[in-house]
Amino acid sequence: LNIMNRSLKFLVALFSLVFVLSACTGYSDSQKKAFDEKLQVFMKKENLQLTKTSSGVYYKIVTKGKGSIIKYNDKIRVMYTGKNMDVTVFDEKTTPIEFNLKNLLPAWKEILIGQPAGSIFYIATPPQMGYGSQQAGNLPPNSCLFFEIKVMSTL
Known about the structure:
Elements: H1 2-25, H2 29-45, E1 51-52, E2 58-63, E3 75-83, E4 89-100, H3 106-112, E5 120-125, E6 145-154
Antiparallel strand pairs: 1-2, 2-5, 3-4, 3-6, 5-6
């Protein structure tokens, strides 16, 4: 019974890993290019100068904090605003909320890890580093997104 239980846990973990990896890599080069063009149009319209990472995420450190350095396993306290490319706010937290960083969007992890708490960031993310091809609440699949994030502290 114990061996079957471990085998079942292993299979669940394996299927979860396959699902996550397929969600992150399931876009063609032409799709990624189209997402990038959509992000560039948004940034131009909003007069934003952001830096692009190799994963396709655009970011800017608006204010560099002086707190502790953010690590993968940290719980962070943040305030943020999330917008669609039409500038509609789809989510906003104006009072601090706590999250385990490792459970957040790949774009957030990529940009926040290694930065000091107290920082404010702009992040524009293609779907492959956001919610991917899955619908998330009212967001349609394959949404490009923009976030303004203030990391209050690590916990």
